[in-house]
């Protein structure tokens, strides 16, 4: 007969790990362009400063584990 703990584990919804990646560094180094590439867009060499912060989220599998990857562009003035 299963114990209470095993019943709770079997019926619980699968969990998803959250991983946060911060893009930090000096201004004009391509952090925003990297975030665009992460979103499937082309690399943009033109400079448009990030005045606050920007982020993107993508669900994926890593080593057979569901992961929610958050990539944050922190802007060059931080």
Describe the strand arrangement of the main beta sheet, using strand numbers: 1-3-2
- Radius of gyration from the CA trace? 19 Å
In DSSP terms (H or I, runs of 4 or more residues), the helix count works out at: 2
Class from secondary-structure proportions = alpha+beta
Poorly predicted runs are 1-9
Strand content: 25-35%
Q: Mean pLDDT, as a whole number?
A: 78
**Chain oligomer state:** single chain
Largest sheet: 3 strands, mixed
Give the SSE string: HEHEE
How much helix, percentage-wise, in residues?
A: 10-25%
Instruction: Using the alpha-carbon principal axes, give the shape.
Output: elongated
Question: What's the β-strand tally?
Answer: 3
What is shown here, in short?
This protein has 78 residues and is of the alpha+beta class. It is built from 2 helices and 3 strands; from the N terminus they run H-E-H-E-E. 21% of the residues lie in helices and 32% in strands.
Description:
This protein is of the alpha+beta class. The chain contains two helices and three strands, in the order αβαββ. The chain has helices at 4-11, 31-38, and strands at residues 17-23, 54-62, 65-73. It has a three-stranded mixed β-sheet with strand order 1-3-2. A hairpin with a 2-residue loop joins β2 and β3. The protein is elongated. Residues 1-9 have low confidence and may be disordered.
Outline the secondary-structure elements.
Layout: H1 4-11, E1 17-23, H2 31-38, E2 54-62, E3 65-73
Parallel strand pairs: 1-3
Antiparallel strand pairs: 2-3
